Amino acid sequence: FPAQSGSTRILEKMNRTYTREWYEMKYNRIKEVLPNCGVSCDIITGFCSETEEDHQATLDLMRTCEFEFSYMYFYSERPGTLAARKYEDDVPEDSKRRRLSEVIEVQHEVSRKLNAAQLGKIHRVLVEAQSKKNADEWMGRNEQNLKVIFPRSTYAIGDYVDVRIEKTTTASLIGVGVS
Question: Residue 152, SS3?
């Protein structure tokens, strides 16, 4: 569900068919119908002519919608695209990088908050693979597509496991399987 920007002006320049207001309305409707639905988005900082005000609108959208995950990039011109043909890439590289850092920090704030709210809760997790950091742990995903890490025990890839969350990071929920 790509937001890409929190600024209607920038969305129009990106040739998107929606406004920020429409996007928020659709996001709110999704959460109303499916309250536990995990929503991720794409965010692009530093698009042609983006101002600090436009950037702040993006940060505000991220705080308002509280995305579970975001794919975050700074704009780089691609030859042959509509933007490259129509607009000058006029946002300085250092501004793009700073804005991207701010976007990443806001996503981390949101992720910390959302993940901390899961402490003590039990999640149904599909075991996908061995944890990258510890061979004695599994990695799986819950219904919101959040990564969950837990001890291997007797579980196998493809099993569904109920996991009580005991710890969190910005990127993962960490817990133990419960019977």
Answer: coil
User: pLDDT tens digits for 75-91?
Assistant: 999 888 888 899 999 99
What pTM was computed for the model? 0.91
User: What is the β-pairing status of strands 69-74 and 40-45?
Assistant: parallel
Query: Measured in whole angstroms, how far is the alpha carbon of residue 38 from the centre of its chain?
Result: 9
Please tell me the distance from the alpha carbon of residue 130 to that of residue 76, in angstroms, as a whole number: 35
**Is 139 in a helix, a strand, or coil?**
strand
With H, G, I as helix, E, B as strand and everything else as coil, classify residue 147.
strand
Asked if 65 contacts 22 with a C-beta cutoff of 8 angstroms, the reply is no
Place of tokens 């709110």: 28
Compute CA distances 115 → 57, 69, 82, 138, 158, whole Å. 24, 11, 39, 18, 24
DSSP-assigned states of every residue in 49-97: T--HHHHHHHHHHHHHH--SEEEEEE----TTSHHHHH----S-HHHHH
